[in-house]
UniProtKB/TrEMBL annotation:
GO terms for molecular function: carbon dioxide binding; iron ion binding. This is Ni/Fe hydrogenase formation protein. One of its GO terms (biological process) is protein maturation. It comes from the Bacteria. Belongs to the HupF/HypC family. InterPro entries: Hydgase_assmbl_chp_CS, Hydrogenase_HupF/HypC. NCBIfam families: hypC_hupF (TIGR00074). It holds the Pfam family HupF_HypC.
Length: 99
């Protein structure tokens, strides 16, 4: 199952011409591409799918959703190895498209 998961932007940097962020998903920290939502800033919450921030989200909605996902055990399922592999593949495709 694929989910779009809310996370909090902790750090932002540009890497090889691509805006990337360190995002906290309720204790699970991952690298996320910000190319689809370039105006996100540190402290914002975003909906993330396979390593790409897709939309800004308010903090209350993000927290409620993360709590529900944790109760249902969905965060462990979403952030297994397939998620990381898909995120890496998508990030490479974005970088190649920008060349």
């Amino acid at each position: 199952m694929c989910l779009a998961v809310p996370g909090k932007v902790m750090e932002i940097e540009e890497r090889d011409g691509t805006r990337m962020a360190t995002v906290d998903f309720g204790g699970v920290v991952k690298e996320v591409c910000l190319e689809y939502v370039p105006d996100l800033v540190v402290g914002d919450y975003a909906i993330v799918h396979v390593g790409f921030a897709l939309q800004r989200l308010d903090e209350e909605s993000a927290r409620r959703t993360l709590e529900l996902f944790e109760e249902l055990g969905l965060l462990q399922e979403e952030f297994g190895d397939p998620w990381e592999a898909a995120a890496a593949q998508e990030a490479m495709q974005v970088q190649e498209a920008r060349k």
